[in-house]
# Entry
Amino acid sequence: MWILKWLPNWIFYAIFFAGLLGLVASFVMKFIPFVYVYKTPIQVASIIMIIIGTYMAGAISNEEAWLARVKEMEVKLAKAEVESVKETIKIVEKIVKQKEYVTLRGEEIIKYVDREIVKYDEKFVAGGICEIPKEFIEAHNKAAAVIIVEQKK
# Structure
């Protein structure tokens, strides 16, 4: 409520107690002429003050409860942000390790192909018949295994 930001809380409690005091005074002090003459307006004003004071005391309590919830959620949010940063670091490290693994495996396969498969180049040209060597099939399967591992992670 906008009025809670402008006025201090004690004013609303003072209004409540002033209304309570006015209501009690209108019933007890019948011998004072001023109170006796204006008994009904004093009672109405006192009841209105009690209602306003009670309403605003509830609003103050509600406002304090919401502020406490906001602070609690801010603490939870800060904890979640810290956990998020930690998880992000873990994920980035995992991706870097995975890329290194795939790169190393790819380099090993290229070296293997350069070393083993080159031996069959002369046979392909000379014979005219294309035989698929066992080493070529193994190199192909290893490369496919690296791709499958990369896709699973």
